Automatic annotation (TrEMBL):
Belongs to the GPN-loop GTPase family. It comes from the Bacteria. It comes from Streptomyces kronopolitis. Keywords: ATP-binding, GTP-binding, Hydrolase, Nucleotide-binding. This is ATP-binding protein. Residues 102-173 form the Rhodanese domain. Pfam families: ATP_bind_1 (PF03029). GO terms for molecular function: ATP binding.
Length: 200
């Protein structure tokens, strides 16, 4: 008797949470992580004045300068390692390392600063990375229909889009489940070999 468990180890998957400055990436990961999330939040100082626009998020006092990290077990067979990207263009040089090996991404959108979504959308579209769009509903912000957001961003109708509350564990979990469905759909559409590789 070997003493080892007959249960298969869960599949570990890397995903990325992206979007503009102040869109809620750190909050999103903190709401779902089953471990104490790692973040690299730093105070917004005078150095960023004129560099990082805070229009629409004037109350924001900290920002991610490298990455956020958390872990969530979706079910006994699947564990997600979740990485959050910095939102400022001046930290975009970190993205390639953070995204390497990721199966998919959540692009968070703040409709008060919708133009901040374009860099992330362009990045993942150019690389063919599966992603879902998650519109983070902020208190006091004007609400738009998802079709209106799609039109404003010019994204493919096939890309899943959801409304979410980055503070709510259930809402975040629904977004992550939608992303995994999209990853499986894209890999299946690409052919049986890639779908089989995902399942291993």
């Amino acid at each position: 008797m070997s003493g080892r468990s007959d249960k298969a180890a869960p599949l570990a998957v890397k995903i990325v949470i992206s979007g503009g400055l102040g869109v809620g990436k750190t909050t999103f990961i903190g709401a779902i992580s089953e471990i104490e999330p790692l973040d690299t939040e730093a105070a917004i100082t005078q150095v960023s004045v004129g560099v990082d626009s805070l229009a629409g998020v004037e109350d924001k006092t900290t920002t991610t300068v490298a990455l956020d990290f958390g872990r969530i077990t979706l079910d006994p067979t699947l564990v997600l390692y979740v990485f959050g990207t910095p939102g400022q263009d001046r930290f975009s040089f970190l993205w390639d390392d953070l995204v390497e090996g990721a199966l998919g991404s959540v692009v968070l959108v703040d409709t008060r600063r919708i133009e901040d979504s374009f860099p992330a959308l362009d990045y993942f579209e150019e690389r063919g990375t599966p992603f879902v769009l998650a519109v983070n509903r902020f208190d006091g912000a004007r609400h738009f229909e998802l079709d209106e957001v799609r039109e404003a961003l010019g994204i493919d109708p096939a890309v899943p889009a959801l409304v979410c509350d980055a503070r709510g564990r259930r809402s975040v979990r629904e977004v992550l489940a939608a992303l995994m469905d999209e990853v499986v759909r894209r890999h299946t559409a690409a052919g049986p070999a890639r779908a089989g590789a995902l399942a291993r």
